[in-house]
Amino acid sequence: MSVLFHADRVALQYRGRSAPTLLDLTLMIRQGETLRLDGPSGAGKTSLLRLIAGLERPTSGRLHHLPQRIGMCFAEARLIPQLSVTGNLQLVAPRAGAMMEDMLQALGLGDVQGSPAQSLSKGQAQRVALIRALLVRPDILLLDEGFGGLDPRTWQLARDLIRKHHNQTGFAVVEISHDPARLVVPDGPCLRLGP
Length: 195
Hints:
By secondary structure, the chain is an alpha/beta fold. It contains five helices and eight strands; from the N terminus they run βββαββαααβαββ.
């Protein structure tokens, strides 16, 4: 399997902080792999996701094999409020027609696809954000507490959709969840950060 991301003795220290958020981290992520990030708040889990996504640069060390396509799903949906559900999704995948429609139906959003994002409930917005992350056909899918607002049945639908596309396309999954019951791959390998 091809290497999608390789951190070699990476450190990350934010300006104004006395201690580094990440220190001497070496990590390799290959196509199809799953990885859960664990550790207390402030241990650097989200910072590591941001490094993988190319949103942060390390203070020292080297990053290799940055993936071409990143799908990210945060705790907040981060949709454009005035755009419709379909409009938000078409920003990342303008020609995803049938695939987008299938995902909207699978997650129970078929009846709100023309609604502005600002009119959605938190759970609906989170589902739209997940579809957006999958529509980019990611090399790596990054999940940062993206499903806290979903009821158990809707969470299962979201998990099943991720697993289906993971099995079909072989993207890697890196996830953070403080709730063990809300992990996409609960038995996958775990990297613990912090003390």
